[in-house]
């Protein structure tokens, strides 16, 4: 390579870097800012997405989907939702024995099938699962998880598996979603054995956070309220209002909280939130009270926040794992989710369990 070529390439590289820096600087200057000079993160955001937390094995280590794959996945989902929104026929036949076991075409369709059981549940009038894949930098993603490269949660340690098996032998997983298995024989002995969301304590599928994730069903809105020393995130699902202090230190290790203890700090234009002091009662994806979550909130433009999270728990996984997805600004109102007031189902399932016991039914498959 000649000296002239090297100089030319060096000049080109410097020009590209300079242009990129200028672009970032211009973007930073264009951001709406709060009175303290930091980016204004406030607003209502819709986090609905078709992109699953974990990547399907068919994509391997490929995070970005092709245009053809995107068109096929989103097209099939539009067709499914349009069909599901059609009026139900009064003279339709009962579901086939054993329910519908035909192959599903998308992650959402699989969740929908599981949520209502194979004989059916909510129809699409009642849910708003989202109709688009998550896009970051204009690229549609195959998973929210970006690290490890395969887009999967790292394998659980042997001790952690044993710990969780012991818990699940006597109760349902605390973070179980609506379509979760019924659980062991003692799963209906009392309210404490039921999942936290079923008891209206926390949102389904870690919507409350941290990390705060899509629930893939409905109530997809989050509201951010920001002051100089506090950030509040209100979740439409159930009722959770999460308070993040700006600055300070975590309390002693014996102080444990449902949502952990969250402390925020600004790194440039990104709000970084460090959360520890979790209670062992929540067990996000089988984690322990040693769970540590670091979140990053970055305003990309006036319509988008990029939410990034890193999970670590040395007593559960061998390594940390990271995911990200966009929060899209919305002008929809957040309605009250009066979960406790309308939670007739919890009392109903417990009374049903007592009735079955009186009739001599002891199988966990109630």
Q: Can you put this structure into words, describing what you see?
A:
The protein is an alpha+beta fold and 366 residues long. Helices cover 22% and strands 19% of the residues. It has 5 helices and 12 strands. Strand 10 and strand 11 form a beta hairpin. It is globular, with a radius of gyration of 23 Å. The termini are far apart.
Distance between the termini: 76 Å
Give the averaged pLDDT, no decimals. 86
Q: What is the CA-atom radius of gyration, in angstroms?
A: 23 Å
Number of helices: 5
**Helix content, binned percent:** 10-25%
Low-pLDDT residue intervals, each spanning 5 or more residues: 19-25
Q: What share of the residues does DSSP label as strand, in percent?
A: 15-25%
Q: Main sheet, how many strands, which sense, barrel? A: 9 strands, mixed, barrel
Instruction: Give the topology string: H per helix, E per strand.
Output: HEHHEEEHEEEEEEEEH
The dominant shape is globular
Order the strands across the largest sheet as they lie in space.
Answer: 1-5-6-7-8-9-10-11-12
Count of β-strands: 12
- Specify the structural class: alpha+beta
Which helices and strands occur, and which strands form pairs?
Blueprint: H1 3-30, E1 43-46, H2 67-84, H3 107-115, E2 135-136, E3 139-140, E4 145-147, H4 158-168, E5 221-226, E6 230-235, E7 241-246, E8 261-267, E9 270-276, E10 292-301, E11 304-312, E12 321-329, H5 344-358
Parallel strand pairs: 7-8
Antiparallel strand pairs: 1-5, 1-12, 2-3, 4-12, 5-6, 6-7, 8-9, 9-10, 10-11, 11-12
């Amino acid at each position: 390579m000649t000296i002239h070529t090297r100089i030319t390439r060096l000049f080109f590289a410097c020009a590209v870097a300079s242009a990129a820096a200028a672009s970032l600087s211009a973007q930073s200057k264009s951001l709406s800012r709060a009175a303290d000079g930091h980016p204004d993160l406030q607003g209502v955001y819709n986090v609905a997405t078709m992109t699953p937390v974990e990547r399907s094995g068919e994509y391997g280590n490929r995070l970005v989907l092709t245009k053809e794959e995107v068109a096929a996945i989103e097209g099939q989902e539009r067709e499914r939702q349009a069909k599901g929104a059609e009026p139900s026929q009064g003279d339709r036949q009962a579901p086939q024995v054993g329910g519908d076991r035909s192959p599903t075409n998308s992650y959402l369709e699989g969740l929908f099938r599981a949520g209502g059981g194979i004989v059916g549940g909510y129809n699409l009038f009642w849910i708003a699962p989202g109709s688009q894949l998550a896009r970051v930098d204009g690229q549609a993603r195959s998973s929210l998880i970006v690290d490890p490269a395969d887009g999967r949660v790292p394998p659980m340690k042997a001790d952690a598996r044993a710990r969780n098996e012991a818990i699940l032998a006597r109760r349902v997983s605390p973070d179980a979603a609506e379509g979760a298995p019924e659980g062991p024989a003692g799963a209906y002995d009392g309210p404490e054995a039921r999942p936290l969301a079923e008891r209206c304590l926390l949102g389904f599928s870690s919507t409350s956070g941290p990390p705060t994730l899509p629930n893939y069903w409905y109530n997809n809105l989050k509201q951010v309220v920001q002051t100089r020393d506090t950030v509040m995130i209100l979740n439409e699902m159930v009722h959770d209002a999460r308070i993040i202090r700006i600055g300070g230190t975590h309390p002693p290790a014996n102080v444990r909280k449902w949502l952990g203890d969250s402390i925020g700090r600004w790194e440039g234009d990104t709000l970084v939130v460090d959360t520890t002091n979790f209670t062992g009662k929540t067990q996000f994806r089988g984690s322990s009270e040693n769970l540590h979550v670091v979140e990053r909130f970055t305003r990309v433009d006036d319509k988008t926040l990029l939410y990034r999270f890193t999970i670590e728990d040395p007593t559960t996984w061998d390594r940390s794992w990271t995911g990200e997805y966009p929060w899209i600004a919305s002008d929809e109102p957040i309605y009250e989710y009066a979960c406790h007031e309308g939670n007739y189902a919890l009392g109903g399932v417990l009374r049903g369990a007592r009735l079955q016991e009186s009739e001599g039914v002891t199988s966990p498959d109630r």
